[in-house]
Write a structure and sequence with these properties.
The protein has 390 residues and is α+β, with helices and mostly antiparallel strands. Helix content is 48%, strand content 12%. The protein has 16 helices and 14 strands. A hairpin with a 5-residue loop joins strand 1 and strand 2. The radius of gyration is 21 Å and the shape is globular. It starts with 13 loop residues before the first helix and ends with a strand. The mean pLDDT is 91.
């Protein structure tokens, strides 16, 4: 079986056709590099719910223990360490804190829309990218003058091929620069209390346990980088979906309560991340295929969310679809902490755009630019829009 084709969202969807074929014919596939790919919803959900058998410590296990994930990277650690860190982080990064960001998100999104001139603009570059960076840096307590740095770091992670030597070096530089910057803020908060997110993380305590500096830095970096990618991709995918689905824009405009189920359908059909990785802690069988201990296993979220066995007519956007089982934000102990924030940003942004514009269309005279498979993002690098003001 050949390698996956390049990502395309525009209806031709060669990647989606490949995933459909793999679900039917080869639900677990070993690629030429020896990595295993899992495509069906049942298997992806079961694996993500079993951290004892399928480790998230991909760095340590795939390097034979020679390397470890720096700091307390929530995505790359297992119980019991994961549980301790997640409890401490969750004590601060609460649903109440996220809900309290509603006015700030509205303010930032309004300012960004106000700054747009004319009747055409690139949604990703001028709105979807800066929105989450400004919101998250506000939460962290980063000075406004430093926010362009955050945008540079976030963008750099999406413009390099991590699997090439040059890309790996660029990634290392970005991680080092961002980590050093955040460490300065952590040091300042330890010397002087602050009620921003970094200050609260520094003081978080449960049963005498606290987060160390590496833990705080890694969570702040994760929130910035993953939060940026998730919201930017979600917003682009929402607007693309509205352009592709005839009549849907008018339906949402007339009934704003439909924006929430629309968001879930976009997350299901076009999840921001293509896949997540796990490593078996022992030899296991997945869908009849023997997978050795310490093998790389790629769990295709996009494929699971399009699995006909769980979601009838998976390629259609159905606002009345029960979506409790969609896996865009993962499943189990590693379910994304930032999911409520991404949903809120996407829904506030779309509501504001519907208020402001009588019509919104993708500019089909301009080329749409997508991320490719190597970046693991299912979304657009650019999305040119033309609008009519209300």
């Amino acid at each position: 079986m050949s390698a996956p084709p390049e990502v395309r969202l525009d209806g031709g969807a060669s990647l989606l056709a490949w995933l459909r074929r793999m679900r039917d014919e080869q639900p677990v596939w070993r690629d030429p590099a020896g990595r295993y790919h899992v495509f069906r919803h049942e298997d992806v959900q079961r694996i993500t719910a079993d951290p004892a058998t399928f480790s998230s410590d991909t760095v340590g296990r795939l390097s034979g223990g020679e390397r470890q994930a720096a700091g307390g990277q929530l995505l790359l650690i297992d119980p019991p360490r994961h549980g301790k860190m997640r409890r401490l982080v969750s004590k601060v990064f609460t649903a109440k804190m996220v809900a309290a960001m509603d006015p700030r998100i509205t303010e930032v999104a309004t300012d960004l829309l106000d700054a747009l001139d004319g009747d055409s603009f690139d949604l990703v570059e001028e709105f979807a990218n800066p929105l989450p960076v400004i919101v998250i840096s506000s939460m962290l307590g980063v000075p406004p003058s430093d926010r362009p740095l955050f945008q540079v770091w976030a963008d750099s992670l999406l413009t390099v091929d991590w699997e090439t030597p040059e890309g790996a070096k660029a990634l290392g530089r970005t991680v080092e620069e961002l980590g050093g910057y955040l460490q300065q803020h952590v040091t300042e908060r330890r010397a002087r209390e602050s009620d921003d997110l970094i200050g609260l993380l520094v003081r978080a305590e449960i049963d005498g346990e606290r987060l160390n500096d590496e833990d705080v830095v890694s969570f702040a970096a994760l929130l910035l980088l993953a939060g940026h990618v998730t919201t930017a991709a979600l917003l682009g995918n929402m607007l693309l979906t509205l352009d592709l689905e005839e009549g849907l824009l008018g339906e949402l405009r007339s009934d704003r309560a439909r924006i929430a189920p629309f968001t879930e359908e976009v997350l299901r059909a076009r999840p921001p991340f293509l896949k997540v990785d796990r490593v078996p802690t022992r030899a296991v069988e997945i869908a009849g295929v023997e997978v050795p201990e310490n093998s790389a296993v790629h769990l295709w979220l996009l494929s699971a969310n399009r699995d006909e066995r769980v979601f009838p007519e998976p390629d259609r956007i159905l606002l009345d679809r029960p979506n409790a089982r969609q896996l865009a934000f993962g499943h189990g102990i590693h379910y994304c902490l930032g999911a409520p924030l991404a949903r809120m940003e996407g829904q506030i942004a779309l509501n504001l755009m519907l208020d402001r514009y009588a019509d919104i269309r993708v500019d089909r005279d301009s080329a749409l630019t997508y991320f490719d498979n190597r970046v693991n993002v299912f979304g657009l690098r650019q999305l040119p829009l033309t609008v009519k003001r209300a």
